[in-house]
Amino acid sequence: MNYESIYNELLNHIKQENVCLSEPLRNHVYTKLGGNADLFVTPESIDELKAALDIRKKTDIPLTILGSGSNVIIKDGGIRGLTIGMSKMTNFFIEGERLVVQSGAAIIEASRKALEHRLSGLEFACGIPGSVGGALYMNAGAYGGQISEVLDRATVMTQDGEILTIETENLALGYRESIFMESDYVILEAEFGLSQGDPVVIKAKMDALTEARESKQPLEYPSCGSVFKRPPGHFAGKLIQESNLQGTRIGGAEVSKKHAGFIVNIDQATSKDYLDLIDLVKATVKDTFHVELDTEVIVLGEDLEEQV
After folding, report:
1. In this predicted model, what pLDDT tens digit does every residue of 172-195 receive, in sequence order?
2. Which residues form the active site (predicted)?
3. Could you give the residue range(s) of every CATH 3.30.465.10 domain in the chain?
């Protein structure tokens, strides 16, 4: 595939600083590992996004959408085709108790923006890493709250460039799942329905949740966040801890000694280190407790040996 010619065509429609050839994706994910994207575009506007999708459709190359990469592992061989990173689409709009946020904005910033305008409902998100789009994709949640409880609707773009608004009840939001996992929609915006609140009370709750996160999670190392979904009737971290896996290491990846539900990059880990350690954890927990752990982290790309 002649990606250089596609790159040149993209430059006809998108600012040069928003288009890259063979971009190292480790610079765009929280784990700080993974291979390169053949083409990487970070659109600043709806027009740039539509141009990228039009060219992608015309050339029929693979497409991957990336938020801020907080809950993602990119394999060592990188991602083929076009990867679109949404991190430059970060605008906010507030009208009354409605907070509209573009998908590339950090969900933590959305919670802070709500606080600025004395709006309550997004306090639980003050410690969730990642983008608004990623939070919708995963129906992210923490500390007793989740996105589906405050989301009114989402605005998306189809692969044909059509813009649609979809009500929350039609987004199939469940535990760490949504319609976006089965569709090719690109998330543009989220509209949250919040309520007026006392900013002192809102801030106090956010401060308490932030302190709880910082005290319990291994934020001093790169990671992909919580690796496993909560198994019915159990807590993944507790099962991993009671399997004596904390501190277990493969290459530069380690099961966190601070929180067993996290795998951290402590010494230039590869994606293979991460994925091999995930497999070891799953196998050990199954052997010890007869419980299957399912990952919530999204794995993208190819192994090195798959590259042609």
Report:
1. 999 999 999 999 999 999 999 999
2. 176, 226 (proton donor), 296
3. 92-203
Are 192 and 151 in contact, with CB atoms under 8 Å apart? Answer: yes
Distance CA 124, CA 82 (A): 34
Assign a CATH topology to domain 92-203: 3.30.465
**CATH 3.90.78.10 intervals, the chain:** 218-304
Q: Is 49 helix (H, G, I), strand (E, B) or coil?
A: helix
- Tell me: the pLDDT tens digits for 235-246? 999 999 999 999
Annotation says 249 is catalytic = no
176 has catalytic annotation: yes
Q: DSSP states of 177-244 as a string? A: B-GGGTS-PEEEEEEEE-EE--HHHHHHHHHHHHHHHHHHS-TTS-EEEE-BPPPTTS-HHHHHHHTT
Longest distance between any two alpha carbons in the chain, whole Å: 58
User: If you search the block for the tokens 């280190």, which residue do you land on?
Assistant: 273
State the catalytic residue, choosing from 123, 148, 176, 191: 176
Q: Catalytic site residue 296?
A: yes
What CATH number does domain 3-85 carry, 3.30.70.890, 3.90.550.10, 3.40.50.300, 3.30.43.10? Answer: 3.30.43.10
Catalytic residue among 226, 243, 256, 271: 226
